[in-house]
């Protein structure tokens, strides 16, 4: 077909010209509106994007994609997904309906329905039961029992010792949203940890996290900072945790009786 050959030649010329540029490139939306589209679809049949980027990058065209796969769909507000859904002939919605949206929960704001919640009402559900993140079933046992009806299958790593260790701080007090005694104990414990493992430090509030930091030695603070830069350490409050992983995680609950002996 003469017309198709002409478009292929024109589209190739457009892309060759774009590849030779060092600045002032055409946008993906502009290229998809040109004869370069057929080459783009052949060279890049798969796109990795966020819902917002889909709206900015691709023309609002029905069935632009054969299929859209949404991961972490419980974190995507339904309105944010409508554009990508409109552009797709088929869709697969993947996510965990037991996962909360941290920013919405802790800010107290009202949130729109998430994509996973809406899809679960109308589309067929296929449970994924194989849990691969925990090296020992004990790490997921509480969630498995209380949230997943003991249906998750966890595969323990060979020779993995029992992974949960509780450190009770009997003389701690919870005053002004911090437990200073526990923060000191956490800081001292962090000093004993060997290098070579990724470490996560979690507190149940920003105030407790700051208190732990204050009692870390300058050397430990430097070690934590370098670990964060190298992505071998994270130091976060609970509401900031979302999919973070580490070989060893230290969690400071912080809660205790106050100076009057009352526990709230």
- Total number of beta strands: 7
Uncertain segments are none
Order of helices and strands: HHHHEHEHHEHEHEHHEE
Query: Helix/strand-derived class?
Result: alpha/beta
Strand order of the largest sheet: 6-5-7
Q: Roughly how many Å apart are the termini?
A: 78 Å
The overall pLDDT, averaged over residues, is 90
Could you give a short account of the major beta sheet? Answer: 3 strands, parallel
Helix tally equals 11
Topology:
Elements: H1 2-19, H2 28-32, H3 37-43, H4 51-57, E1 65-70, H5 78-86, E2 88-93, H6 102-107, H7 115-122, E3 130-131, H8 138-146, E4 153-154, H9 180-191, E5 199-203, H10 206-214, H11 218-229, E6 233-237, E7 248-252
Parallel strand pairs: 1-2, 3-4, 5-6, 5-7
Helix pairs in contact: 4-5, 9-10
How would you describe this structure in keywords?
single chain, 264 residues, alpha/beta, three-stranded parallel beta sheet, two-stranded parallel ribbon, 7 strands
Brief rundown of the structure:
The chain is 39% helix and 12% strand. It is α/β, with parallel strands linked by helices. It is elongated, with a radius of gyration of 25 Å.
